[in-house]
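Students often ask why we bother predicting the structure of a whole assembly rather than each chain alone. The short answer is interfaces. A chain on its own may look different once its partners are present, and contacts between molecules only exist in the joint model. In this exercise we take two input lines together and write out one structure for the complete complex. Read the inputs first and try to guess which parts will touch.
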Amino acid sequence: MNKAIEQIDRLTRDAVQEVFQSMLSMEINPEAPLPLSPDPDGQIIGSVGFIGEVTGIIYIYAGIGFARVITSRLLGITEAEVESGEMVTDAIGELSNMVVGYVKSRLCNDGLPCTLTIPSVVRGQQLSVEGSAQLTRRLIGFRNCKYHLLAEVLLKTP
Amino acid sequence: MSIKILTVDDSKTIRMIVAKSFKPFDTTVLEADNGVVGLAVASREKPDIILLDYTMPVMDGFEVLARLRSDPNLKSTPVIMLTAEAGRDTVIKIAQLGVRDYLIKPFKAELLVERVGRVVDLKAKSAEGRKNKRFDDPIGILVVDDKPAIAAQVRAGLADTPWKVSSADQPGQAMDLCANGIDLVLTSLTLPNEGAYMFFQNLRGSAQTASIPILGMCVRTATADQTRAQQAGFSGVITKPIDPLELKSKVSRALALETSYRYFQQRDGVLVLIVPKDFHPGVVQEVSSHLDAELINVVDAGGDKMIVDMTAVETASLPVIELVISALQAATKLSLRYAIIGTAATKTQCNSYEETQAWQFAGSFEQALEMLK
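Now the answer. The structure tokens for the assembled complex follow.
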């Protein structure tokens, strides 16, 4: 289990950096997992699960302000053109899908086949995930200038 | 004809990225948010290529692909699979189903365009719909050549225009420059290591530079290079040594510059066709492309006269004569009356042609107006 969580932790760091670099042309660097800065518009969490030889879920947390920046970069539009909450929700869902798809592909190649769930996204204020005793948990922080992003990995204990 | 691209993806974000990626090209992007809708759209629209997501609710990409392959009308439609899952097993499964290619998310828009461009013939959108620049507007031209003398020749040849010429001696440097204010590229076709063609591919593969016209340059006798450039999709070829008149003409055409004002003017309610002093084959093409529209505008506005001004002409060569004859014939068809202004020398030269012996020349605009009364 320790080996699996270490592997998924490393893959998640790589995945977030790769997705930001490829799709957003944006550098984002891992850092200590600090709580997200308060955002008057709230927070957003995208999540995708993986089920198989290893089972778990990865959550991506961002403030709505950063989520709008991500959406604008992903779609190649200005922030002013990010017109609806739905646009942001869909973009964060797709971002999460790409991150977890990256992790899943490498797990499969390493002999840990699994399948992905459909992405889901929630928005709100002060969001947090409660893990049960059967779950191993890792929190990874990322920073791009003033913006923070958190990735949380929950892995089911066999 | 516009290339039809169908994107089948449950993510609106991906569909928007696809649509945006192909905006600089002459394409119609159709969208479907699941496999069932995708099959229906494919059946109705017969797209030239389908970009298919792998993981979707309702019907996944595998099933869509299997159904496409069993439909006689759609089985040969090329499919590129987009997937966030790059595991070996997934890739093998995708390959076995006969997709043309697959792209792993995350992907850059340039890569998507490049992969699709390998399957269908993507053409940059024409200048139609854009507000065309005029010949006397500032234009950014980039010369890519490892021989600095060529950039110097281009600069000298365009010195009488407001066009700004910058240069790069290799494609890597040129790509950076293209991102900023370059309207047209002139590249040597003989750059080392197939550099011109790689540069061309890179420009066409980037959404930011895909619509920049590219003219190749080579010596007149390098016909194989000229043919290859045309086949690759270059906007044209300029031969060295560079003739400034030919260069201006080809730049004008590649950028669809507004040039009619250089040849046509309205004076006292009369359409004046000015035959320029620097006459070359490009002038014939430019005048001919505007002639009918200019004449129709005159008639529409209630006018009935045209004056051909040949005073700048030094030699009434055959191409000049042919151009004037075709203008007069077009005017006659629309029942316009016409007069010609020219110097005594031009009149003498025209007298030596059977077709132009009867032309009456006025010495000035006012005299031409008198003749038309």
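Check your guess against this: DSSP finds three helices and seven strands in chain A.
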